[in-house]
Amino acid sequence: MDIDPPARGIPLVPGDEERLLRDAVSDLAGRYGHRYFAEQVASGGAAEELWDELAAGGYVGAGLPEEHGGGGLGIAALCAVEEELAAAGCPLPMLVISPAIVGSILARHGDEAQRARWLRPIAEGRIRVAFAITESDAGSNSHQVATVAARDGAGYRLRGSKTFISGVEHAAAVLVVARTGRDERGRGQLSLFLVDSDAPGLERQLVPTACAALEQQWQLFLDDVEVGEERRVGPEGAGLRALFDGLNPERLMGAAMCTGIARYALDKAAAYAREREVWGVPIGTHQGVAHPLAEARIELEAARLMLQRGALLYDAGLEAGEASNMAKFTASEVSLRALDRAIQVHGGNGLADEYGLADLWFVARLLKTAPVSREMVLNHVAEHALGLPKSY
Ligand SMILES: Cc1cc2nc3c(=O)[nH]c(=O)nc-3n(C[C@H](O)[C@H](O)[C@H](O)COP(=O)(O)OP(=O)(O)OC[C@H]3O[C@@H](n4cnc5c(N)ncnc54)[C@H](O)[C@@H]3O)c2cc1C
Fold it and tell me: 93 CB less than 6 Å from ligand 1?
């Protein structure tokens, strides 16, 4: 049940620009709401109407450069868009994948022809491009990617498999991470390739998961998929550098999805706690109900500030890895806590479909594991921020 319209997200930067953006997206998403989202998920839809409206408003490409069809407002703006969507009960992972990961990589590493052919339609929301790095055997160790792109005449042949690749069913293409060589330490030298979703030799198999999202997850099998040289993004073997320019936006957008879900949960919990009476007073009168929500609200604002810091660093072209990882780490913990508390405040109704909370659990839970697991974030912080030895 959509009790109240979503509360506005407090802008993090003074001035009107972010406020206007947030208000516009919040109004747009509020017209759809979580019930629409849940119906789309249940029916296997892609929320096309919502996506198309976002695209027409220029919100899909808000963060991408203006000269390539975007709004030129940076990843901070796209994070604001994602947060407002999630705060209205409509988290959109495809916004994380297509414009934030693939779009950011193309903006910084694509050549002019690739930007015209791929980046502009991504920024304008006319096409979606999925992203495939994960492999069953390599796991979190991207140096062990086994999918190979072998030189073949003027192009490449790709062989291997990927797993848990989101949204391929809605995507025109997939940006595939493949190995084109090994360095002196035996680690994979990676390259990035744009592969059409319907390319001959590319097969996919559904991986059923608990995530109630608009995107399905797929295992991809690449059996001598031919791509021309013009499909390679960035120099051969330099894919790792390009990847980081897409993975930091991915972490920031994941954080934004989490802070949005936390806002959505807390808005609903507070509205319910104001209205529901069991002992003659609203349950929100009891501090045992109010304090966990207030605590989650404080944690939420801390996560939002960390997110903003990471986005500002990225947009300024500064080192944003640690800040982005920390923001994703914190936001994913906060969203699960806020959602859990919101479910608790709703009593039995917290588990009823009608109240639209429990179905978001695994989407929020996903962000503890993906795009980078909490343990790998802790490894990064232990090594780089604390100077501790690496264990792996
Ligand atoms: C719903 C969903 C959607 C996804 N979408 C995509 C997508 O679109 N594209 C894509 O490429 N991938 C996608 N993924 C994959 C996701 O990014 C990976 O599952 C994630 O990065 C973890 O990798 P793994 O599953 O191989 O876990 P593993 O690497 O096998 O790790 C297993 C566990 O061991 C821990 N661990 C591993 N190494 C260490 C270490 N050195 N120290 C401490 N702990 C460690 C991990 O933290 C984790 O808890 C998706 C996954 C899911 C579930």
Answer: no
pLDDT per residue as tens digits for the range 294-314: 999 999 999 999 999 999 999
Kindly give the distance from the C-alpha atom of residue 180 to the centroid of ligand 1, in angstroms, as a whole number. Answer: 23
Token couple for 329: 């780490």
Whether 9 has a pLDDT exceeding 70, the answer reads: no
From the CA of 244, how far away is ligand 1's center (Å)?
17
Spatial contact of 82 and 92, defined as CB atoms under 8 Å apart: yes
Q: Measure the CA–CA gap between 134 and 280, rounded to whole angstroms.
A: 54
Residue 294 tokens, joined: 């207030």
What pLDDT sits at residue 331? 98
CATH architecture of 129-237: Beta Barrel (2.40)
What's the pLDDT tens digit per position in 39-76?
999 999 999 999 999 999 999 999 999 999 999 999 99
Residue 103 and residue 64 in contact, taking contact as beta carbons nearer than 8 Å: yes
E strands, 102-147, in order: 129-132
- Compute the distance between CA of residue 380 and CA of residue 390 in angstroms, rounded to an integer: 9
Looking at residue 187, its pLDDT comes to 81
Half-sphere exposure of 386 (CA within 13 A, CB side): 10
Angle at the Cα of 139 (from 122 to 203), degrees rounded to 5? 55
Q: Look at residue 2 and tell me whether its pLDDT is greater than 60.
A: no
Residue 361, CB-side half-sphere exposure with 13 Å CA sphere: 15
Atom of ligand 1 nearest to the CA of 130: 8
Evaluate whether 262 touches 300 at the Cβ level (below 8 Å).
yes
CATH of domain 241-385: 1.20.140.10
Mean predicted confidence (pLDDT) in 103-123: 98
Q: Where are the domains of the chain?
A: 16-123, 129-237, 241-385
Fold held by 16-123: Butyryl-Coa Dehydrogenase, subunit A; domain 1 (1.10.540)
For the segment 136-143, the average pLDDT, to the nearest whole number, is: 92
CA 213, distance to chain mean position in Å, is 12
* Ligand 1 centroid – CA 188 distance (Å): 18
